[in-house]
Amino acid sequence: MKKDYELHTSGLVRRLGLFSAVMLVVSAMIGSGVFKKVAPMSADLHAPYWVLLAWGIAGVISLFGALTNAEVAGIIAEPGGQYAYFRQMYGRMFSFLYGWTSFAVIQSATIASVAYVFAESVNTLYTLPTLPESWTQISLLGLQPFDNFGVKLTAIALITLLTTLNYRGVEYGSSVGNIFSSAVVVCIFCIIFLGLFWSNGSVENIRTVSTTRPPLESMSLFGAMFTAMMSAFWAYEGWNNLGFMGGEIKNPHRNIPLGLMFGVGFVMLVYVCINFTYLYVLPIDKLIEVHEQQNTIAAIAVVKEFMGQGGVLFITGLILMATFGSTNNTIMSAARIYFAMAKDKLFFERAAVCHDTYRTPSNALIMQAVWATVLVISGTFDQLTDMLIFASFLFYGAGAYGVFVLRKKFKEVPRPYKAFGYPYIPALFIVFCVTLVVVSLFERPKECGVGLLLILAGLPFYWWWKKDHK
């Protein structure tokens, strides 16, 4: 019987085709942000049309990033994705800092954050237990680890379950992603249809600005737009996860670029349509009220408006499916970064182990789960996502610039796909990344400062591992 896969030199196996590649992108992106982030964006911008513009700009920029990244993904199809790309572009130290930051902030915080929203959704169906106030008020370094403890414990249980599932084989993780993502997309389009044609919503809601918040002046609007786009980019975050699976995608030089393009384009369409529906159904002042309430999710408030309590159960189930699938995707793909780093002797040596039976980076999965659990306990959802978006765009910009680097460095290497609009689209994406990083430093200095400290904290580890394995 002919094998349906090939063995990668790392010990991983190429089992996943084009459909799985597209669904990996979709499931990585459609998690919690599409249901939650319209509320804080409304509070930032005070007008529905500015909120929709922020979603549209963030989608176009993400698509530009994916189209640029696809060229590199088509020529360097190795486990670890951007870690492997940066090693070729800028050398071992820069690639290590990316991998370290993924472990410390970007990917682990994504797992923690989306699992947290899953737990919040469970909390809307069944009130989870909390600790006494004497415990919840305990503060450690400005954080309250025992606050909302029932929600945090549920998020940790989900991380443990999905890590165990992915430990036992890539096909299990991929199947979960395909099934849950397909179901979520169908349900989202049902909400769009019902919201636009069955609810009592109005186009007038799209035109009406907040009556409780003052209108924004030009400079205030500029800063608020970038702050709001930080929320939108959290929803778009994850499109580059496909590259992490470079050692497990069939015909990767073709399927990874196609998966990126089709996946990101489709998610952009979904996001603009569903957020238009939210703003069509509920006035912006009601969405701002949602933002000011703890453990309340915007999508639930919208669907409750026109479907009642039955709609609450429906949307809660949908959010549970989406966040379950998205958490699974990030757990599955991100562990390949640390596996690749350990293979290069730049991470804990045990993380380089490929399980003899399951052909998975088993130890890397366990280490990732432990750190994600720490992040769940230590921080709130929005603090984590603001940290990771800032850190992500530092490296997105470097990745886009790397297209120019590799065009000079590897002139003769065949490119199954060449970056769309080169050099203008990649250059525009780089400029946007730099602008977002600078604005973020002013708008979110605390979160960005913590992100920078976590990145720089990797340098002693790099020198230690480098020295230890000379």
TrEMBL record:
One annotated Gene Ontology cellular component of this protein: membrane
Gene3D superfamilies according to UniProt: Amino acid/polyamine transporter I (1.20.1740.10)
Record's keyword terms, sorted: Membrane, Transmembrane, Transmembrane helix
Annotated transmembrane regions: 12-35, 47-67, 96-119, 179-198, 218-236, 256-281, 312-339, 360-381, 387-407, 419-442, 448-465
Subcellular location: Membrane
Membrane-protein topology: Multi-pass membrane protein
UniProt superkingdom: Bacteria
GO MF, one example: L-amino acid transmembrane transporter activity
Pfam families tied to this protein: AA_permease_2 (PF13520)
KW Transmembrane helix (keyword) present: yes
Major place of residence: membrane
InterPro entries documented for this protein: AA/rel_permease1, AminoAcid_Transporter
Protein name per its UniProtKB record: Basic amino acid/polyamine antiporter, APA family
